[in-house]
Design goal:
This protein is of the alpha/beta class. The protein has helices spanning 13-16, 23-34, 49-61, 81-88, 97-113, 123-127, 164-183, 200-213, 243-263; strands at residues 5-11, 38-45, 66-70, 93-95, 130-132, 136-138, 147-152, 155-160, 187-194, 218-226, 229-240, 272-275.
Length: 281
């Protein structure tokens, strides 16, 4: 089974203005890679319906399995993601009864705790229950706006809130159980080999040789600050049908990397493993 292909659309004027750091895409990329997916593109967009719709249709034209949007699901006038998606897909919006009930319950609980002055479903609160036809709300146990799931042209489109805690909650507890079956059969793992080298150009011959000899492994050197100085490390990453296959690929590439670095007089430590799984993990 091929790795599911994913694109991410991050939406928000505040991200493009540099006022907010986009940690959502970083978190999603790591989670998706660890679960066996391949993220091929991350696009950052303003709160502009035309540009959001244009980017969504462009993503659909590339045939991904999953498109994730982050941001623009809230109660204010600049939260335009749902309207933009509906317009781009030519789907009218409606007040989704399940989403409306979720929001009613959320504000009733806030009112009972004394966190809001009224439990009434105002126009702004009801706006978060407006969804395209055939969409399905995803439970948000942290905040107000539900996530939104819909299918289009063989792709699953999922819209998540921009608040990181809410995005993580919906992805982990509401979305992932729906995706898990289609993600099975793929394992992704990576290893990091630390070195005492501070000049990446010195590493290059060994790194390039390993990449040529192990085409199924992604090999990349990077610089990192350790203490008061800079040192380089080498990342080895692979994916495959099961953990044993991936481990075999990485074992061979790691041994070759250590040998190549030693031949250049570079000291290297044992690889540190990271990554995720499949097969129901």
């Amino acid at each position: 089974m091929a790795a599911p292909i994913v694109e991410i659309l991050t939406i928000g004027n505040e991200v493009l203005a540099g006022a907010v750091l986009d940690t959502n895409s970083h978190w999603l990329c790591r989670e998706l890679a660890a679960r066996g997916a391949r993220v091929t593109r991350v696009t950052v967009l303003p709160d502009n319906p035309a540009l959001i719709g244009e980017a969504l249709l462009a993503a659909l034209s590339r045939g991904p399995d999953l498109i994730l949007t982050c941001g623009g699901l809230g109660p204010t006038a600049d939260d335009l993601t749902m309207a933009a998606i509906a317009a781009a897909l030519n789907r009218p919006t409606h007040l989704h009864p399940q989403a409306y009930a979720m929001l009613q319950d959320f504000y009733a609980r806030l009112f009972a705790r004394g966190d809001v002055t009224t439990p009434e479903m105002t126009e702004a609160r009801a706006k978060m229950a407006q969804m395209p036809r055939a969409a399905e709300p995803l439970t948000n146990t942290v905040g107000a706006a539900p996530g939104v799931l819909l299918q289009e042209e063989g792709a699953l489109i999922v819209s998540l809130p921009g608040v990181p805690a809410e995005m993580k909650d919906i992805f982990t507890n509401a979305l992932w159980p729906r995706l898990e079956a289609s993600f099975q059969g793929q394992v992704y793992s990576e290893r990091t080999v630390a070195t005492d080298c501070w000049d990446e150009s010195i590493l290059a011959p060994a790194v390039d040789a390993v990449a040529r000899r192990h085409p199924a492994v992604y090999v990349k050197s990077r610089a990192q600050v350790y203490g008061s100085g800079i040192a380089d490390f080498v990342t080895l990453a692979a994916r495959g049908r099961d953990a044993s296959e991936v481990a075999r690929l990485l074992d061979a590439a790691e041994a070759d990397t250590l040998a190549g670095l030693a031949a250049l007089g570079i000291r290297a430590g044992a690889a540190v493993c990271a990554g995720g799984g499949a097969d129901g993990d």
